[in-house]
Write a structure and sequence with these properties.
Layout (H helix, E strand, L loop, with lengths): L5 H7 L1 H5 L8 H12 L4 H11 L5 E5 L4 E6 L15 H5 L18 H5 L2 H8 L4 E6 L8 E6 L19 H14 L11
Antiparallel strand pairs: 1-2, 2-4, 3-4
Helix pairs in contact: 3-7
Length: 194
Amino acid sequence: MSTKTGKECYKNHPYTRYKTCPCKIDSEIIKKTKVIFEKSEGIEDFVEKLEKSRIKGKKIWFDKKQNMIFISKPHACESGGGCPENDSLIGNACHCPRYNHLKEHLPKNYCQCGAEYYRPMFEPIFGKKIKLIPYKTVLSGDSECVIGIKLHELSYNSDITPHKQEQPTPSDDMFNNAQLYLSTKTIDLSSHVF
């Protein structure tokens, strides 16, 4: 068992240093998530299907008011992980081998890496503007880990079904940008002959 403190672990953690999670989500889970999304009738249906499929996480739900998807993670010991030498909740529940030996509580931002783990699952669907948030963490003293996926306000319109949602074409974007630009300009046509 490591003798490093939480701050030392955080300072040397790959996410702190390189802004990338060294743990990778299985590519089959990413593919299955996309397929479920394409077959869904809306965000609530998508999340409900993810929950029923048990594709990832212990429980998945959507909070419409917060425009967030939540995923509660199973305890590491439930999936063959954890730190057997540490009989605390952190040792049993934390998936991160850099922290699960600790018994001290640390700030939630230490678990940003654990939140970013889910980015490959949701970014291809909702875009780069999603925010992944360590909402609850055993490392910070909560009884479970819950990750929040904050959807960008424009990334999903719940009135449009995922499989029917249209993305603007570049020509539409150019037209809209030109229209916006022209609406801010005054053009003097008095010297023009018509």
